[in-house]
User: What shape does this take?
Amino acid sequence: MPRRPVNLHKAYHAHVYFDQATVQQARALCEEAGRLFKVAVGRVHEKNVGPHPCWSCQLAFSAAEFDRIVPWLEANRNGLDILVHGLGSDVIQEHTEYAYWLGNEWPLDLDALR
Assistant: This one.
């Protein structure tokens, strides 16, 4: 069972996962998050990038936004899976120890981070 996100870090990334069938849903979710919250919306990657095992879009936000955006993402993800992780000084630790999931947990390609 995935661990639920806890606000313990100064900054976060949320990676919205999607595929060809859900790309428009993910794009709309990320755009709406950008309008409603103080988040930086990254590119909608229609290919695997970094450790992510499917297509994704990154949302970057501070701890000040965490308690507003994480519940909103949970309520509005409509079946999309989202990796939320704290930012620190160790990228492997960020994607393992500091990783939380909204929806299903996916296996990450940690070799891509080494």
About this structure: Residues 22 and 73 are 16 Å apart (CA to CA).
